[in-house]
Specification:
Elements lengths: L2 H33 L6 E3 L3 E5 L4 E7 L15 E7 L4 E7 H8 L4 E6 L7 E6 L16 E4 L3 E5 L3 E9 L6 E10 L1 H30 L6 H7 L10 E5 L13 H4 L1 H28 L4 H22 L19 E5 L7 H11 L1 H11 L1 E7 L5 E7 L1 H17 L4 H21 L44
Parallel strand pairs: 3-6
Antiparallel strand pairs: 1-11, 2-11, 3-10, 4-9, 4-11, 5-8, 5-10, 6-7, 12-13, 14-15
Helix pairs in contact: 1-3, 1-6, 6-7, 6-8, 9-10, 9-11, 10-11
């Protein structure tokens, strides 16, 4: 893959993620417009059912526009509507925070904090005190208030403000249903629609870049035969090999992960593109029964690149040669090949990546994600010791320590680590829909892939495949 194609894939992936964000954000705004807007075009919050045995409920906030709101913000967004209803006559008012605090000094009330978007997402913090000496309706500091009907509208102003809900006579025991909102339905519709249109444009650019970056050159005669469904005589769809360097430096493994950081950065983008392209391939298989060859070559290249970095830096430590920045096969001690499958089962595409692969996911999780041991401590509880990195990471660390002190990488340990990585990569290829052949529950040890040939369908040689191969055909 030429550098230009790699850049096309990287920027295509960034554009694709941006398009997804625009679609999600635009959809959320349109959903809010459709479900949270009332007849007066106000977008209202959920109804909060607030009740307390104290004398008041308060919400305090700081408003700082920095300039006149009319200079940069629609007037409708600076008008807040609060609707309060209850079984008894209620008072609702908004006033300067310092004057409201002075009024409530010595009064028992609850501070309300909204913690989320749901109707139950709030917390009440009680403040001890007694009944106020005067009813709230007798005070003059409220900038806006209502008593009885329970609806108020207020033009937002800079400053510290406190909203208060009380019984009209100041008595204890409040039960109120509260909504708040602003008149922004038309604005939400415009912004949401604009985000969706922008998402379509950015998504189209992402698709163009990804197609450009993953488009194959003219197929050779051998690759054309693969497309026609001719299988390799080896019958090994996933081949993973690695050659242990006999002259490894004792200490270099300590810094390889730092040296590989440029690879990790590029691979983060490439694996994001891998996921997106696998989704595209899923639908292609579902409708055509074939894995698009250009996407297949790109995804194999990403796995090949990752395998070389793992072999060098963090998964094997098998060589001191720096990996090339390429998804193509290269002259390097670590190699990965996946045979192009020709036709694939449409039915298996629906279930193999999640249902059928679950047993392997459990095992591969132990290989790659972490190991946990439980033991009872003296107090009778559970003491948990967790070792991250999985079995592969732990064994690779052991190999590094052995190399540091003895100057050699134990051959048996190398063979085991290779077998574990080979298992993981076979499962990855199966889960990515790149083959219908079920991965074997078997450790094939060693640097060379020792997996025996699997007879192709229709082979009358009498041989039997050693791989478990579920069949599912969609009609």
């Amino acid at each position: 893959m030429r550098p230009g194609k790699v850049l096309a894939v990287v920027f295509g992936t960034i554009f694709a993620l941006t398009a997804i964000g625009l679609f999600v954000g635009g959809g959320a705004l349109l959903w809010t417009y459709a479900t949270q807007r009332n007849a007066d075009d106000y977008v209202m919050s959920p109804e909060y059912d607030l009740s307390t045995n104290s004398h008041a409920l308060t919400v305090t906030g700081d408003i700082d526009f920095g300039t006149e709101p009319s200079e940069w913000w629609p007037d409708s967004l600076t008008t807040v509507r609060v609707e309060v209803s209850g079984e008894q006559p209620l008072f609702a008012g908004i006033g300067p925070a310092d004057e409201v605090t002075a009024y409530l000094t010595g009064v028992g009330y609850d501070e309300v904090e909204i913690t989320g978007p749901g109707s139950d997402d709030f917390e009440l913090t009680p403040v001890e005190g007694t009944q106020p000496t005067t009813a709230p309706t007798d005070e003059s500091f409220w900038v806006v208030s209502t008593s009885g009907e329970g609806t108020l509208e207020w033009e937002l102003e800079d400053g510290d403000w406190t909203a208060v809900i009380m019984n009209a006579d100041g008595a204890a025991g409040i039960s109120a249903t509260v909504e708040a909102g602003f008149q922004a339905g038309a604005l939400l519709l415009a912004i949401g629609t604009g985000m969706l249109l922008m998402g379509l444009l950015v998504g189209g650019a992402a698709a163009a870049l990804l197609v450009l970056g993953t488009r194959s050159e003219a197929l050779s005669e051998a690759r054309a035969a693969d497309v026609a469904g001719v299988t390799s005589p080896k019958g090994t769809p996933v081949t993973v090999t690695g050659e242990l360097d006999p002259t490894l430096t004792r200490w270099m493994w300590l810094i390889k992960w730092i040296l590989a950081i440029p690879h990790f950065v590029v691979l983060a983008f490439l694996w994001t593109a891998f996921v997106i392209m696998t989704v595209v391939a899923f639908f292609a298989i579902l409708f055509t029964g074939r894995y698009p060859r250009s996407i297949f070559d790109f995804n194999v290249g990403v796995m090949r690149w990752s395998w070389r970095v793992q072999f060098y830096a963090n998964g094997v430590l098998g060589t001191d040669r720096y990996p090339p920045f390429s998804i193509d096969d290269a002259d390097y001690p670590a190699h990965l090949e996946i045979e192009y499958p020709g036709e694939l089962s449409r039915g298996l595409a629906l279930v193999k990546w999640w249902l059928l692969a679950i047993p392997h996911y459990i095992i591969v999780g132990l290989f790659t994600s972490g190991l946990v041991w439980w033991s009872n401590d003296l107090a009778g509880g559970d003491a948990v010791l967790e070792i991250g990195g999985g079995l592969i990471g732990l064994l690779t660390l052991v190999a590094g320590v052995a190399l540091l002190f003895s100057g050699r990488y134990p051959q048996g340990l190398f063979d085991l680590v290779m077998g574990l990585n080979r298992w993981v990569l076979r499962v990855a290829a199966y889960a990515a829909l790149m083959t219908d052949e079920y991965p074997p529950f078997r450790l094939d040890l060693g640097g060379d892939d020792p997996r025996p040939a699997t007879p192709s369908r229709g082979d009358d040689s009498g041989g039997e495949s050693t791989a478990i191969q579920p069949e599912l055909t969609a009609h």
